[in-house]
């Protein structure tokens, strides 16, 4: 699997796919910058006046409900349905699902009325999608009884999609096979938007490949590896500000070779 | 006072409070990143569809009108009233009050219909809240006849809150005692959002402590000290871009000891 | 011409004009930071509730349709018409014109109902304004048959404005004289918002000068020179994250002398 995934890194820089992202206001600049850093091109048109038309120019769609509003939700539904009808893969990030009724309802509507190819969230968000009633503390993960692998497997089997559960070990599942990605660094939790950026990166790879398990593994492991390299590069005085800058630096330099050297995957 | 405030820095990293922030689109990413850097957790749900519910999960609420819109204003009012009824402290940043009628009206409505525990602004913004008709030039401070200490004292006494007036010397008052914080650096005015980030940091401390004078001093002095350290760390070639990154670096490293070493407070 | 433009850099740091910007959610923080870095002051009030009033306090208005919405469009129209009536120069950035019908329609309405002093876009966006039907791929430029100089000349002549077409060589025209700015670096295309930031910088100079050709050349060449300096400063490990930080650093240090030393202009 690793060799095929590594090839996606080369292909991405060559193809420069356009990735439409209807995402939150907090981290959208970071999402655009990592999209460019890995070699794709972002467009972030969220208004229902144009979202459905914009997605037709795109090779993938990323939906993220971090700062959900009725207007952007309408844009997400319009773009998502168009993407489904045109065979454009949809990546969904259910940020904060479970925290409020509005957010949970919208997340469930997206899961039911759109067919996401890949869903990525933390354990508590993803657990909500399968009826688990873990408490979501704002938009950050809290302790959940099930393992990441179990949640990923159940989400994937329930919705017939690829499920990615982020955490200490990231789990990626297609319902039958589940992989654990053992990359990452605790500093990734001290910068806003590393989850959102992972979803954006997964969208970049989904724009390239019909194998969405590969796309998901590529995107989530890329963030983990970049986090490790960024943390290792810090001097004693440098902190989370510099870490965030280096994260983008290493993503912008990532090659098939760097990825193969850094990635650690096992089957669960 | 200093010793008790210093303990808040340790407590914050241990407790990791959730701080709900309904803030402006320009600086919200920076506000989220300094919130994480000091050890708290941000959530930024502004829609009236969920703001009132989200604030109930939070230990403090920060309201900032930098890019005010009718929809986010409704979210602010819903969240603010819920916070008041649940005893969750509200920090208010009246960005640009006085610049337009809409902004001034909304700021006054928030002061009257919500009871903020702490209000932070520059001299011209804060002066408007007490009927002073200084000219607000966009969102930046202009010269005001009263001293920062006088404005802080009057706002605090008028609204029975803690008032923080940012400037060359920051003034913090509870209406009876007024303190001047002599930290800071001119470069803080050359980066967008340092005021907003100060308010966000004050919200992080307000989430911990019943003593809102302490919370206000902790947050505002933290930004000043981080600004001094960031400016001192710059090489000749480095400018405001690197300064902004280092600001977050030093906030992410700030400890009770670093703060005690750096802070300069006198009673006015 | 160079000597007169160089003086604008000194004048800007002395006058600190207020520049109202109704821009997109993705890059607005960057636009605010480069505005401050070059010595002006940004305000970003987009709501129609106050945009028309805010622009009256400002010395220039920048309109950017990167994440267009009906509400912010109303704010743009209100602010733009007020600016026109008060003689406040308007800079327009037609981001993604041609990509969707909504975006193209709004861009054309702005061109017809507001009189921009300066319009800046990439070749495909600018080509749409003159009836060219190039394909706009999201918000990034694609190959267009006409040269940048030809497009700039035609836009300028058609709309009686200054036109700036960004690209490998930037073209600036008043319809009679057309200049090519030979500054820049390929890394500028790997960071989001460098076009938006160019428009913001042009707005800062437009706030100072009645000679909008000079303002346009100053702003667009500044971004190119800063890009060259930022790229030259990178170590092997540093990538697009550090590049973005250095871009702001060099803008914050830019002086009349540095600009004169770096700029390369020829008449087309």
Task: Describe the SSE topology.
The structure is a homotrimer.
Chain A: H1 2-15, E1 18-22, H2 28-38, E2 41-43, H3 51-55, E3 60-64, H4 70-86, E4 90-93, H5 101-113, E5 118-122, H6 123-129, H7 148-159, E6 162-166, E7 170-173, E8 178-181, H8 194-206, H9 212-232, H10 240-253, H11 256-262, E9 265-267
Parallel strand pairs in A: 1-2, 1-3, 3-4, 4-5, 5-6
Antiparallel strand pairs in A: 6-7, 7-8, 8-9
Quaternary assembly: homotrimer
Radius of gyration of chain A: 17 Å
Q: Which pair has the most extensive contact?
A: A-C, 35 and 34 residues
* Silhouette of chain A: globular
Question: Which CATH class of chain A applies here?
Answer: Alpha Beta
Q: What is the makeup of the main sheet of chain A? A: 9 strands, mixed
Derived from helix and strand composition plus strand pairing, the structural class of chain A reads: alpha/beta
Strand content of chain A: 5-15%
CATH architecture of chain A: 3-Layer(aba) Sandwich
Number of strands of chain A: 9
Termini separation of chain A (Å)? Answer: 15 Å
Kindly report the average pLDDT value of chain A.
95
Describe this structure in words.
The structure is a homotrimer of 268-residue chains. With 268 residues, the first copy, chain A, is α/β, with parallel strands linked by helices. Chain A has a single domain (2-267), classed as UDP-N-acetylmuramoyl-L-alanine:D-glutamate ligase. In chain A, 50% of the residues lie in helices and 14% in strands. Chain A is built from eleven helices and nine strands. A nine-stranded mixed β-sheet of chain A has the order 2-1-3-4-5-6-7-8-9, sandwiched between helices. Chain A is globular and about 45 Å long. The two termini of chain A are 15 Å apart. Chains A and B meet through helix 5 and helix 10 of A and helix 2, strand 2 and helix 10 of B.
């Amino acid at each position: 699997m690793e060799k095929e995934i590594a090839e996606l890194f080369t292909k991405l820089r060559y193809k420069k796919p356009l990735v439409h992202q209807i995402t939150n206001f907090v981290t959208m600049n970071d999402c655009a910058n990592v999209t460019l850093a890995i070699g794709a091109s972002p467009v972030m048109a969220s208004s229902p006046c144009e979202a459905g038309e914009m997605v037709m120019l795109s090779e993938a769609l990323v939906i993220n409900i971090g700062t959900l509003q009725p207007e952007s939700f309408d844009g997400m539904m319009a773009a998502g349905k168009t993407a489904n009808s045109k065979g454009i893969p949809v990546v969904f990030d259910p940020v904060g699902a479970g925290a409020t009724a509005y957010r949970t309802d919208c997340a469930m509507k997206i899961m039911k009325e759109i067919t996401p190819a890949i869903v990525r969230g933390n354990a508590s968000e993803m657990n909500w999608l399968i009826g688990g009633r873990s408490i979501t503390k704002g938009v950050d993960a809290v302790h959940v009884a099930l393992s990441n692998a179990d949640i990923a497997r159940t989400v994937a089997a329930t919705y017939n999609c690829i499920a990615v559960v982020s955490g200490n070990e990231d789990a990626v599942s297609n319902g039958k096979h589940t992989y654990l990605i053992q990359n990452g660094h605790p500093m990734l939790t001290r910068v806003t938007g590393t989850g959102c950026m992972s979803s954006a990166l997964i969208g970049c790879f989904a724009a390239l490949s019909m194998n969405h398990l590969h796309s998901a593994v590529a995107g989530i492991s890329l963030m983990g590896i970049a986090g490790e390299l960024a943390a290792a590069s810090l001097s004693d005085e440098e902190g989370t500000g510099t870490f965030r800058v280096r994260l983008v630096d290493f993503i912008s330099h990532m090659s098939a070779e760097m990825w193969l050297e850094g990635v650690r995957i096992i089957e669960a």
